[in-house]
Amino acid sequence: VQLQASGGGLVQFGGSLRLSCVASGSIFSVRDMGWYRQAPGKQRELVAVITDAGSPNYADSVQGRFTISRDNAQNTVSLQMNSLKQEDTAVYYCYADISPYYGPGSKLRRIHYWGQGTQVTVSS
User: What is the rounded distance in angstroms from the CA atom of residue 104 to the CA atom of residue 57?
Assistant: First the structure.
C-alpha cells in the first residue's frame, strides 16, 4: 500500500491550488483520510480530515478557505485550497488509515500511511 500526493506548487497570495492523493495497493478498507502540513521550523499540524462517511473537519486556520473531499471508489482524497496566504506555505502530507488486504482469512489491521510531501509556496 502506498499513497501518492500531487498538486503542490507556487501560487500568489489569494490564489488557489488543489492537492490530490491516491492510495493504491492491496486495500481492504480506508477509514479517515486527510492532510497535514509542516512549515519550516514548525511542528507538523493537521489541516483537514475526512471520514469514510464524508464528514470533514478543518483546522481553524483554514476553515472557510480549504475544502477536503474524497472519492471512496478511487481511494483518493483532495484538498481545494482557496484564498491562500503566505502562512499556508508548507510541505503538505496526505495520510490515510488503511486496512490492507493480506488474503483470504488473514487478520485485518489498521495502519496509518503517509504520502510523500508536496511543497506549497504562497508568494506575496
Answer: 35
Residue 68 has a pLDDT of 98
Residues 6 or more apart whose CB falls under 8 angstroms from that of 17 comprise 7, 8, 9, 11, 81, 84, 120
Closest by Cα among 92, 89, 96 to 110: 96
Q: Which of 2, 18, 14, 4 is nearest to 120 (CA)?
A: 18
pLDDT tens for each residue of 34-67: 999 999 999 999 999 999 999 999 999 999 999 9
E-strand ranges in 1-82 read 2-6, 9-12, 17-24, 27-38, 45-50, 56-58, 66-71, 76-81
Q: Using an 8 Å Cβ cutoff, are 94 and 21 in contact?
A: yes
Q: Sign (positive/negative) of CA torsion 89, 90, 91, 93?
A: negative
What pLDDT was estimated at residue 50?
Answer: 98
With a cut of 50, list the residues of the chain below it in pLDDT. Answer: none
Backbone φ and ψ for 87, nearest 5 degrees, come out as -70, -5
